[in-house]
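Fold it.
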Amino acid sequence: MRIQVERFPVREDEEVHLAEPATGLDLLRALGLAPDAHILARSHTPIPLDEVLSDGDRIRLISVVSGGSA
């Protein structure tokens, strides 16, 4: 299946091909990204990593940034 991925905040789009069935976690693994550092959203609504994706989905991939000083 084909998933359209929009990376945020870099505003980069790409198409990822995954075997069905695939979840949000499968998508992150295919992209080589850490699950604890990203949020997935479909139609501006966050989805859990175990959510099953559908062919043609457009998923926004949001990088979580944290930091500060002690």
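Residues 2-63 form a domain with the Ubiquitin-like (UB roll) fold (CATH 3.10.20.30).
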